[in-house]
Amino acid sequence: MTDAASHGQLMDDVYRYQRLFYDITRKHYLLGRDHLIDAMDVRPGDRVLEVACGTGRNLAAIGRRYPGAGLCGLDISEQMLISARRKLDGRAWLAQGDACAFDPFEMFGTRRFDHIVFSYSLSMIPDWEGALAEALRHLAPGGTLHVVDFGDQAGLPAWFKRMLRAWLARFHVAPRDTLPDVLTDLAGDSRVARVEHLRRGYATYACVQRRG
């Protein structure tokens, strides 16, 4: 079994039943998702891709916030896509695939996206740097990459950080403390437009804009 297939099977096993109550429980600790959506500037006709779209919660919110956007979602877990298809009910193109290697034209009929979103997914992708590099490769000139995920918790008590990370590890989640630096290195000719540490570092939001 390939690494991608193995990870896909793991995610299916993790979310086979969790997907049924995922949105209800995650709203209490996946902080900053709506901050990311509000920070986007999506125009009618813009193509939006969420990598590791999960249940489709964010794509549905983006569709409400920015009517007329073309919504696409990619996830390695077929179990999560079952929930996403039900939630979005034909309002988005959805495909199963590996965040680190995918063909957007084959999956969605387009080679570039105006906006690409990672929301609390990099902390679960083993080759998360590879996933970011792949996303930047498919970003249109002038397009933006938006990321929100667990931060370094630098402004929070040490005991809270230890407990949070021990709990997250039970679900195969590992905060990427070097995310801002990695984004800067990967951006190349693009520019890191913004990095924000939310809730005393509980979460990190970052935006990269590709030069036009």
TrEMBL record:
**Keyword Transferase among UniProt keywords:** yes
- Keyword GTP-binding: yes or no? no
Q: What is the protein's name according to its record?
A: Class I SAM-dependent methyltransferase
Enzyme Commission designation? 2.1.1.-
| Sequence ranges assigned to domain Methyltransferase in this UniProt record | 48-143
Q: Name one GO molecular function term.
A: methyltransferase activity
Stored InterPro entries: Methyltransf_25, SAM-dependent_MTases_sf
Which segments does the entry list as coiled coil? none
GO annotations under biological process? methylation
**Signal peptide region:** none
Print the keywords alphabetically. Methyltransferase, Transferase
